[in-house]
Amino acid sequence: MRKRIYIPVVLVMALMLMAASCPKTLTAKQQGAVWFSVYNSTYDDTMSVMKNPASTIVQKEMAQKKKAILIQVWPLLKIYASVVDSGEIPDADITKSITDLMNQLTVLLTGGQ
């Protein structure tokens, strides 16, 4: 079975890798923008798989795994965005939690289990 490649998700992941390899650190606002981009791309991809009657069982199982992570990360992203929008520095714990969940998404997006 051939895996479907999702161009927007791959592009966002490539941007994240490029940003991670740069010696300059992202600002909290830039990091949030990257996270929201990954979230939105993954959400769109997940919904398209779940709504597509031609999706395989394996695709739907993977979509369920992504959905579970999206559900966990959404409230954290909202808190992070509100803190950044208020001009404050996000708490290290929330940043770590978001990073950990985004890393889990990255593993799933790159074909890991």
* Radius of gyration of CA atoms, rounded to a whole number: 15 Å
The class by helix and strand makeup works out as mainly alpha
- Give the number of DSSP strands: 0
Averaging pLDDT over every residue, what do you get?
86
Number of helices: 4
Q: How much of the residues is beta strand, in percent?
A: under 5%
N-to-C order of helices and strands: HHHH
Low-confidence stretches: none
- Overall shape: it is elongated
Largest sheet: none
Q: How many domain units?
A: 1
| Distance between the first and last residues' Cα | 17 Å
Percent in helix: over 70%
Structure description:
- This protein has 4 helices and no strands.
- It has one domain (7-109).
- The protein has helices at 7-21, 28-51, 57-85, 92-109.
- It has 113 residues and is mostly helical.
- It is elongated.
Detail the topology: elements first, then pairings.
Elements: H1 7-21, H2 28-51, H3 57-85, H4 92-109
Helix pairs in contact: 1-2, 2-3, 2-4, 3-4
